[in-house]
Amino acid sequence: MALQSEGIQFNYGAKKILEDISVRFEKGYFYGILGPNGSGKSTFLKILSGLLRANYGRVTLDSENIRELSTQEIAKKVAVVPDSSTAIFDFSVEEIVSMGRFVYIGRLARETAEDKQIIEGILKQFNLLNLKTRNFNSLSAGERQKVIIARAIAQQSKILLLDEPTSHLDINYQVEFMEMLKKYVANGLIVVAIFHDLNLAAQYCDKILLLFNKKIHAYGAPETILTRENIKAVYNIDVAVRKNAFTNSMYITPITPRIPEAAESGYTHQIKRIHVIAGGGTAKQLLPELRGNIVSVGIVNALDDDYEFALELKYEVISEAPFSPISEKSRTELIQKLQQVDLVILTNVPFGRGNLGNLEVLENCEKQLIILENTPIETRDFTKGRVSEIYTKIKSKKNVVVVESVQEVLKFIEKQVSG
Amino acid sequence: MLINIVSGESLMRSLLRKFILIFLPIALIASIFLSVAMGSVNIGVEKVWGILLSNVGIPIPVTWTEGERAIVLVLRFPRAIAAIVVGGMLGIAGVAAQGLFKNPIAEPYIIGISSAAGFGTAMTLSLGLYFLGMFTSPIISFTTAILAIGIIYKLSQTRYRLSMSALLLSGIAISFFFSALTSFLLYTSEEQIHYIMYNLMGSFWGVTWTEVYILFSIFVFGIISLFYLGRDLNLMVFGDETAQTTGVNVERSKKWILLIMTVLTSVTVAFCGSIGFVGLIIPHLMRFIVGSNHRALIPATGIAGGILLLWADVLARTLIAPLEIPVGIFTALLGGPFFVYLVLKRKKEGEFA
Known about the structure:
Number of helices of chain A: 16
Structural class of chain B: mainly alpha
Distance between the termini of chain A: 69 Å
Distance between the termini of chain B: 18 Å
CATH architecture of chain B: Orthogonal Bundle
Shape of chain A: elongated
Largest sheet of chain A: 6 strands, mixed
Shape of chain B: globular
Largest sheet of chain B: none
CATH superfamily of chain B: ABC transporter involved in vitamin B12 uptake, BtuC
Radius of gyration of chain A: 29 Å
CATH topology of chain B: ABC transporter involved in vitamin B12 uptake, BtuC
Strand content of chain B: under 5%
Mean pLDDT of chain B: 86
CATH class of the largest domain in chain A: Alpha Beta
Radius of gyration of chain B: 21 Å
Number of domains of chain B: 1
Strand order of the largest sheet of chain A: 6-7-8-3-9-10
Oligomer: heterodimer
Number of domains of chain A: 2
Number of helices of chain B: 15
CATH architecture of the largest domain in chain A: 3-Layer(aba) Sandwich
Number of strands of chain B: 0
Low-confidence stretches of chain A: 259-267
Order of helices and strands of chain B: HHHHHHHHHHHHHHH
């Protein structure tokens, strides 16, 4: 079983909606279609289900052209869940789920025992047994969506197409629902769904089809598709893409642009060269706030949280191999870097023998230094006093300011800019 | 309000539904006997019973006069059957219209069938045409109605589908057009105006068995074919796209439903004139009782429509006997307040912003 679109082009009047869309959807995969509003996602789904006809190209279902199949034949193979469903007349939940059996029941016949059994099984599976005599229009949006999906499942088709199935659902229903789809995929169904929620798609989909500007912008596994660059290009927003520690899936967070804000507050923003001495994730909060400046970070070990974060933000990083002490080479690099910058920031880093080199360089640095201190140095000194000694010496220098929060750091930078 | 009843008392509702489905045929048969007995000359129910049974060859120890026999068999009985059949036809045509237009207040006359057929009748009578005998007027009215729907249909057909909103709009336009033509005919035919008016306003006066047979066969065709499309109608309520992806050949079903509705409505208007509101009230009441599943709704409406129109006709011919009120006026009188009730109910449910 496979559903394939070959060189699909669709025009609405004189306006081109889709251009050259070729994808193959295969058994046992969960496909997510993403893209900004107006990128043709719903149109594409309607072409796949045979509701709309492409102007050029074709859709094949097991290598048969969908246009040569009857409505009934398509319905036996492809079920569709629309983005919203309303009924002007009252139907019970059971009646609606039974409607999924349309193609299997003779027109003048009643449901057979087998049909009834299938319907009962689906009602049970969807937890709808106690709602089965309820009026559809009296249900909540989440329950209604479940009923509509149950109806699609009652069609017993191998391909399930869904248009924004989670958009009306609360988070608990969303997860329940996505887990259910995953189970269907594991049982050999092809699931193709449009999503607005990038994170949900990233967590559950095997393949992502990113549509943009009438075309396929990117197609593949979520990790390769949902990159900062792609999202910036398609949605025109800055995001940080990280791995979620719990689910091991991608996690996308929008980053609000800072530069326009600074302009609004009346200051003419002046780009600064800033170096941050970080480590152990202590600069996580600070780093994104520094966007708009030329920022460098180091010396940190590769795979350190701060290292990944800095890379994600496209900052320059002076790094050392994982778990290795600071080498002479990195040390020289840091010294050179510090000579170029306007400002150095030291975050609340715990120091041991490995990263002590950072402090030693700072001791001889004459640049303006901001120390972001949340805990006393003694509590993060893993060298039996050597660190505290140097740290105290640095703190007593006159080009040093000690602050306690990221806001204070930013205020200080701003003051420097305006002054 | 409706929603509470439906969800809270679903068991009661399903019992009520079963009861109604058994009750309706019984009520129908009882209504036939009662209504035939009633009239300007009262004939006992047992006599009606006897006359009808003896007519099919079962002798009954009840006596009646030859005059009573003629009244029952020639006048009242065919008239009762005609009223039932036309009521049923208009009822199921209403279900078809509401399903087709996805609108609970659509009715079979909405796209101008009655005004087109009315024009046909007015034209036949004012020109004094009689080339097809007693069927001249019905055949011409039926033809004008079908022609009008044909034009509307052509106007509403887009590249891929039949546009329901275009159908409604052009239907309303056609309806005004034919009403204007009819008014013009009435205006210019001074002497015959009363006769034409009487034929335009629905009535079962002077219905013959031949007409009853024709009406009945169209009714049987209509109810079976609509029942055949019952599941299509169920799914079409959720929108064309949902219906299609569930396996309904929507465009084909739409055309068939439109055709069935047109034939049912045009035939009733051609034979009995325009009888409003039956196609609106009965589907509405039955939806409330048996639900919206068309496979229950269509038979229930077919029978209930018959009962309603039968009693409306009894009232029409007895209320100011020996004079008759045209039953069309009567149903409209009944339908107007009912429509207002619907508006008020929907307003209360917050359906109007």
